[in-house]
Amino acid sequence: MKWSVNAGVVDTMWAMVEELFPIHRTLVNDGIRNSLELIRSSLDIAIHEFPSGMHVWDWIIPEAWNVNQAYIADLSGRKLVDFRNNNLHLAAYSCPFQGRLTKAELLEHIWTLPDQPDAIPYRTLYYKENQWRFCLAHDELSLFNDDDQYEVCIDVDLRPGKLCVGEFVLPGKTDKEIWLTSYLCHPSLANDNLSGVALAVSVMKTLASMPDRQYSYRLLLWPESIGATTYLASHEQILEKVVGGYVFTCCGDAGPITYKKSYFGNTLIDQAALHALRYADRGNYSIRDFWLNGSDEQKFNAPGVRLPFGSFMRTPYSEFPEYHTSKDNLSFISKDQLAEILSVVLKALFIADTNRIYEPLYKGEPFLSKHGLHRQVDLKRPDRKSLAYIQRVLTMETDGHNSLLDIANKWDYHFDDILDESIIFSQAGLFKALN
């Protein structure tokens, strides 16, 4: 059975993005747990907790940061900027502050985007102390007069908490695992990161309905970077079982589907992704070699870990103007675009899961007529795409070393055609699977 997109899963995927969008999330806060609890209503994930201050390799889990209120008001009490109206207005991990400032003093603590004057930037102050910033649309600076003073209130709780990781494990025939991950720490950004979260959950929901999975699959949702590092540092004992995996991010915009290769570039997970894209119905895609300054794939591919992880996305992060701004909203992404990349990811995973190495149970060329399998090739005008020609390819290439994907790529065949014919040969007693 081929792994395909279910319309009900697509609807659930979109509804999840809509529900998660308004929740305020950061590295460690109540919003992360609330978001994971919401996801658990769709997929029975486990939620693991890791305490602030815990050393995870070279890093330390930060304290929890929750916002009670944050605003800038004029002296009449009118709030000109209010976190409650848009949770991008306060840079994550800003310190508490209460005071009266002039416009000049206030501007030292404000970030805007002059080249996008109607967009609020998303900014963070991770791992910085005694700093605070408000984020405004550049046009909103007109609200402030040079001669006036303004009341600033940043009422936040910064105290020890628990970093939360959502996990769902789907056992297969072997204990070898493929991991699917996305990050959940950005507030009110639809493409980066909610599209990846919803896609990852939808992939797992679909896999759970598919029979006869070879690999086991592990879904992991966490705050970016520190979440991946925390989980890896806490689960070193299972890393040898990991075949590889995919990181999902920026999956809902209108750009072509992009695949970022793993550090190694030519592993099973890379080849499966490339083959799925090559034969996708749309045919508009982009392949990128591994590059630095990425997302959690950096953590997986790093020295001492070296797990082959690629990344599925559409327009890469930082390459679309809406990136890390209030314009990365629900109108920037679409259900159809999410459904399309879901289809490609499922195809890549199907290829990886069903790729086999067969050895022939005969020497020389088999007498296919004896097994009721012979198909005639027109020697004058051979049709390389015919099943008869595929038989010729398989009897030549199946040797206990070449995988089905190797053969498909070498001879420019769709993986499904090679797989289907190989199953027929196996059922006829001509091939034996080695993996």
Description:
The protein has helices at 7-20, 30-40, 103-107, 190-208, 226-234, 268-278, 297-301, 335-354, 387-397, 404-411, 415-427, and strands at 46-51, 55-56, 59-60, 64-74, 79-82, 97-102, 110-111, 134-135, 149-159, 162-170, 177-183, 216-222, 242-248, 257-260, 285-288, 309-313, 358-360, 431-433. By secondary structure, the chain is α/β, with parallel strands linked by helices. The strands form five sheets. It has an eight-stranded mixed beta sheet, with helices on both faces. A four-stranded antiparallel beta sheet has the order 5-4-9-6. It has a two-stranded antiparallel sheet with strand order 2-3. Helix 1 (7-20) runs antiparallel to helix 4 and helix 10 (404-411) packs across helix 11. It is elongated.
Radius of gyration: 26 Å
Main sheet overview: 8 strands, mixed
Which spans have pLDDT < 50 for at least 5 consecutive residues?
Answer: none
List the strand order in the largest sheet.
1-10-12-11-13-16-14-15
User: In CATH, what is the class of the largest domain?
Assistant: Alpha Beta
Percent range for β-strand residues? 15-25%
CATH architecture of the largest domain: 3-Layer(aba) Sandwich
Please estimate the helix content: 25-40%
* Total beta strands: 18
Can you say what the CATH homologous superfamily of the largest domain is? Zn peptidases
